Amino acid sequence: MTRNHVESLELVTHSARETFDIGTRLGALLAPGDTVCLEGDLGSGKTCLTQGIGHGMGVDDVITSPTFVLINEYIPSQRGGRLYHVDLYRIEREDDLVTLGLEDYIYGNGITVIEWAERARDYMPRERLWVTLTYLDPSSRRLRFEAVGAHYAEVVRALREALTGHAADDAAANTAANAAGNTGGNAIGME
Ligand SMILES: Nc1ncnc2c1ncn2[C@@H]1O[C@H](COP(=O)(O)OP(=O)(O)O)[C@@H](O)[C@H]1O
Ligand SMILES: [Mg+2]
User: Fold this and answer.
1) Residue 135, CA distances (Å) to 54, 139, 186 in order
2) If DSSP codes are grouped into helix, strand and coil, which group holds residue 64?
3) pTM
4) Which backbone phi and psi does 180 adopt, to 5 degrees?
5) With CB atoms 3.0 to 4.6 Å apart as the test, which of 2, 89, 157, 164 could cross-link to 168 if both were Cys?
6) pLDDT for residue 148 is more than 90
7) Least reliable range by pLDDT among 55-59, 101-105, 108-112
8) Ligand 1 atom with least separation from CA of 140
9) Is 3-188 assigned to CATH 3.40.190.10?
């Protein structure tokens, strides 16, 4: 685990709008082929964050939970690529993942965002961005971003920079981001 290839960021949002906006920042930083794994209980904000990611990628369509179909595909209007929005809530057996062709999405050229990723932990790529969302109170959620792999580490550094306005510098920047997240939305640079 070299310092350059593992990177994390933790913050607290105080409204759905803030979570959406962070998703938008993230969506603008993701590259074709990326995988974002979302872990968190019902109502923790996974779909909200995904909607922001889509917005940041230039998807104009309304992104809804793919509750019945498991995967929804969106095409950004401004640039190429795809957003694959996967929801594994209804997955019951590992066979379902094979039927779903999950690996084709993950290892394809689109950006794949997976809700309930922990239900298919063994199928997730080794290098990925893992986001754990935690319900704190009706309007607050904790978002923890954990990157594995050089590319995702760079994404998290850039996200931290975008949110705090500071160049990332290891623990100091992490501390700044945590402090900002704990004291209120304004401090993390939301517009
Ligand atoms: N800080 C916040 N971040 C995200 N969602 C929030 C926040 N505060 C309140 N909410 C509400 O919580 C709900 C989150 O729902 P959703 O994104 O569908 O969760 P999930 O996909 O994890 O089940 C929405 O109704 C949203 O308006
Ligand atoms: Mg959802």
Assistant:
1) 22, 8, 20
2) coil
3) 0.86
4) -60, -45
5) 157
6) yes
7) 101-105
8) 1
9) no
